[in-house]
Amino acid sequence: MAATANTGLARKRGTLRRGTIAALVVLSVVIFTAYFRESNSGPLHGLQDGAARAVTPVQSVSADALAPVRDSWDWLVDLRDARGRADRLERENAMLQAQAIENRAQAEEVERLRGLAGVGGGLAADYDRVGGEVVGRSVTNWYRGARINVGSEKGIVVNSPVLALGDDGRAPAGALAGVVATVRNGSSDVRFLTDGRTEVGATVQEAGSPPGLLRSTTPGQLQLSGVPREFPVREGQAVLTAGFSGMGLPSVYPRGIPIGRVTGVGLREVDVQQTVQVTPFVDPRSLRYVVVLAPTSDDARRRAVG
Amino acid sequence: MSDEQVTPPPDTTQEIPAEGPEATTGVTPEVEAAPRTARASAGRGLWAVALLAFAVVVLQVTVLPFLPMADGIPDLVVVMVVAVGLLRGPLVGAVTGFSSGLAVELLAPIDTLGVLALLYLIVGAVAGRYCGRTESRLWESLAMVLAAALFVQLGYGVVQLLLGKSAGSPAGFVGSLLIPTLVLTALLTPPVLLAARKLLGEPRAVEPFALAP
User: Fold this and answer.
1) Chain B window 82-141: which residues touch A at a Cβ cutoff of 8 Å?
2) What is the CATH number of the domain that holds B197?
3) ipTM greater than 0.85, yes or no?
């Protein structure tokens, strides 16, 4: 009699267990579906924002606490790569000194012509530069992003371009790192260039190519597509933001921000366009401080809207 | 896996010492003899699970992404969820997986919600089916963790592809992302399993709350 009662109870418990697990599966699917169907101001995004707001101070403290560990790790990595980097940097330095002289002359010429034509004042006129610290990072390799400790209170909006500060000598100051994907009071989430969903209108200025579309392919590598074959793209040339997307529409990234260097060009006899492999200047994994371009002019705000 | 376990009367306890899936008969004498002690033990067990999950989620969100090793980020959460499933059964494994996944998605800068919760939930529920079977064989637990980590990575990858993200070449994905992640996860598995075992004690499946007969 007691055994029958126990068996019945066990059956009920088994049903309840399976029911609970099934309910959680359904709940996960509902959350997942609702999250992608709702707008960025929806309740689930709001919940995520609230959690992010609450945890940002903790992440900030832990990022500071971990700084010595990260410094030690970086030092070890640098030590391993030091000799190869030194040789490469010496060669690059000689090349860049020559380029710098030429660039200065060209910049003066551009400024003079801008003054004559009354055209745009560049980044300084259109954007405020807001410094931020990386306090959180993505936990998966799919979403390559980070959380920084500055947000809407500093004028940052969604689609504000994010640049490397260049404090650690690994990336040149002012090189493009990514774009603000989510903004809230006190923190923002940045989507890096190396994230599979970031697309940038870019050009190889030295080759005089029209804007192509740059996006991440394999980790740490970008690919510029849509460059006609008649433009002579070569390895080592710099890739800059074009100010326009591949479709000719204004891009959220203003013109002239350095992105990376050409490391390979794919062109077959039958191809109409070249496929250009680009190594970005900024390695997001080592990024600790960034500069966000907060729009101040109407033109910059229009760009951010996209 | 046997889902139908004969358990003590509902007013005694909610935990069943796990002796493998075939351990389906009999009322545990110790539990009958000391219901208060058993109930107290159940409470401690669940608090220990919550404590372990909290610590691992905090580590996963705040520490691990800052230590760039190759291109991989070790998945400490999957190790913890498998450990909890193995030590506390499918229900606690699933609930721990769901809540840990949701917590990670809420706290980290990541543009999904509910995806990791679902994947970890499945991992916890499946690992829980082996509660009590592998308590003394580390390599079996390690194999289970690696299979679970692979499942989570591929599952998350499929969702990302459905959302329109590029994975690059399959070789690049496997060589640069998948293998480093699995290797780093495997390296972290033994200490996490040992810590979970020390904190949670012997494997015992926790059943749903007692029902009125």
Assistant:
1) 90-91, 94-95, 98, 101-102, 104-115, 117-118, 121-122, 125
2) 1.10.1760
3) no
